[in-house]
Amino acid sequence: MHNINVDFDGTISWDGQTVDPATLDSYFYNIGQNPPEEQAEIHIGANRLAKYDTVAKVMADAQRRHVTKIGIVGTETYVQ
User: Fold this and answer.
1) Which of 21, 35, 41, 50 is the most buried (most CB within 10 A)?
2) Residue 30 · residue 63 · CB < 8 Å
3) Running DSSP on this structure, what letter comes out for residue 50?
4) Is the four-CA dihedral 12, 64, 70, 39 of positive or negative sign?
């Protein structure tokens, strides 16, 4: 399992380490090379002030690289 976090300023981290778009893409590529049943899970968390388009782009990039086990986590903190 890997955790991606999108911060309010658009900064993206992978398992706690800040990554640039090229590095993130290479991680997605490596995961997507495995059959779907063998892929690691990807959990995306976002700061409540993060821009939707940044989160959507991360998800679209993962899908483009054939990552199948991806989901949004931490949204329960936004429910009031």
Assistant:
1) 50
2) no
3) S
4) negative
